[in-house]
Amino acid sequence: MWRRLWPDIFVTGCFSDNFRQTGVYMGRDIERFFEEFHPCADSGILEEIRAFMETDDLIDVYHIEADEYNKIFVNVTLKKFSYLAAQTIFLGLARFMRRSYFSVYAGEETGERMRYLFVTGMPEKDGFKMEVMIG
Predict the structure, then answer these.
(1) pTM surpassing 0.90?
(2) What is the tally of structural domains in the chain?
C-alpha cells in the first residue's frame, strides 16, 4: 500500500474518450489504475528490456523478472546513485518500451531509491506494466 499520493503522474499518447474518463478516475486512485490494468505482453519483452539495460554505462547491475500475471519487475543498482541518473534511466526505458496508444507512469522517492510504475499499450492488442526500482 502506498503511504502517500504519487507526486509525479505523467500521461502521454493519444486517448479515446473512454481513456479520458479513466484519466479522471486515475487522479483519485493511481495505485488502483495500475493494479487493474491487465497486461498481455509477449515473451520477448524481457529480452528487449535486457538489451536496453546493457547499453547504459550508469548501471552496475540489474535484475528483470515477470510474475504469473505478466507484471514486469525491474531492479537496477547504479554505479553511483543520483535522482537525476535514476530519472534519466527510467525515462529512457519508458521511451524505448513505449507502445503507440498510451503510456502512463508515476514515480516516488523512497530514500536512496526511486520507484516507478509504468503502463503502456494498445487496447486489446498488447500492453504491459512494470514496476521499476532504481537505487
Answers:
(1) no
(2) 1
